[in-house]
Amino acid sequence: MLTLHNMLNRYTQIQTKFKFKFTSQSQSQPHSIIDVDTLTKIINDHPFPDQPLTSTLLRHLPLPSTTTTTTAAASFAENVLGRLFASHSNGLKALEFFKFSLHHQPYFPLSHDALEKTLHILTRMRYFDSAWELLREIAKTQPQLLTLKSMSIVMSKIAKYESYEDTIEAFRKMEDDVFVEREFGVDEFNVLVKAFCSQRQMKEAKSVFNKMVSRFVPNIKTMNILLLGFKESGDVTSVELFYHEMVRRGFSPDSVTYNIRIDAYCKKKCFGDGLRLLEEMEGRNFAPTIETITTLIHGAGLVRNIGKAWELFNEIPLRNLVADTGAYNALISSLVRSRDIESALLLIEKMIENQIVLDGVTYHTLFSGLIRTKGIEGVNELYQKMTQRNFVPKTRTVVMLMKYFCQNSRLDLGLSLWNYLVEKGYCPHAHALDLLVTGLCSRGLVQEAFECSKLMLLRGRHMSAAAFLMLKRFLLKARDVDKLQELDQMTKKLKSVLPPSKEHTTGFSHC
């Protein structure tokens, strides 16, 4: 679906494995071979903060004897960072890997994508000081890596977690301290507007628009960003009011404008209005894109018009378009809403047959449908197929599955999912640990709960206060104070270099 995240931030998480060869200067063997998955797991498994990561990286990535670079070499760092981002790794580990690559160039060339992923990891964990420090360093040493996307990543997270004034100040710092050789214009202004719109802060977005419109002359992209923000706020009336405002200002709508308005109506289950806008769009010679049809398929599903959903899907090749993962996902969602889970499962087989990638949305939608219709056996069957395909689900799917397994007394499947993620080099989300610890402790499996919690801390990730208190209660009941003290010491050590957020545990002595 054309969500705000998808339309404003098209971040592709690359999971392809690259075999990357380095010629070692210090070792007798001619090559050291390592792939993205292996290095990601090494970084995630590295004890934090007991040892610096650099020595481990040098051991596994010996410096080449030649400065000749390849396409694989240039993309290696960005793919490792992409995996670290997807696996919710410790942000400081990701930063250390990025700086390792930065300080050993040209052996490990960096791209702007690598910088963008690092900034995304840091700002997601609210390490804004580290992000600013990195930006200033890059501005001095590798300014060619700076992009509008890197600016947008930082600005959006500041708008999310900090105040309106902080966001405006961040824009000034971007102009004065980071992009020092760049003359700011409408493109940079659009980044600032998007920062507020991406967080649905439309009052702030309109405020900054009105204050700065005299300095930065807006374009159609500016107006579409604002229109998209109003759409994501869920108010169709606001969308239409702003649409008429942009027309009054002299802007002619384009295909993106129509896609946003169609999506706004579809999400509010005004499917007829969406079809009306499709006709208007075609009447103005704007060819519908695959995103347009995908939106309408999903809209048809929301109003349970499965016949129209199939009709729109079957029209895709007739419109000289190609059905992609998003289009299939929209139809699968429509089928699941109609409780036709069998047809949805058959559509999955068709995707595989047509070599259409099954993504996180595909699995999440199917698991949601199976939970409602097939129960634990149906969920388990798809779960086994997913792991056999070596697919790692997104965080929301992991949490949903962990909750379902634990609620249905299938702790074996909960532990299986946890171990699967760890073996794949991922750091399970703290909420998944909360659910697993609660389920294990309530059934007397305290040792297993302790081991999972210890692994989380070893990887440089905080436990939540809820999970810590749960485990503390059961360890004290079992008179196993040694394990509790071990967790407490690990927590304090981690806290000394990685301050916890307010929902995280602060240690045994404070509980």
From TrEMBL:
What the entry lists under PROSITE patterns is as follows: PPR (PS51375)
* Keywords attached to this entry: Repeat
- Mention any Pfam family matching this sequence: PPR_2
What residue spans do the PPR repeats cover?
A: 185-215, 219-253, 254-288, 324-358, 359-393
Q: Organism's domain of life?
A: Eukaryota
Q: Which family does the record claim for this protein?
A: Belongs to the PPR family. P subfamily.
This chain belongs to which protein, by name? Answer: Putative tetratricopeptide-like helical domain-containing protein
From which organism does this entry originate?
Lupinus albus
- Which taxonomic lineage is given here? Eukaryota, Viridiplantae, Streptophyta, Embryophyta, Tracheophyta
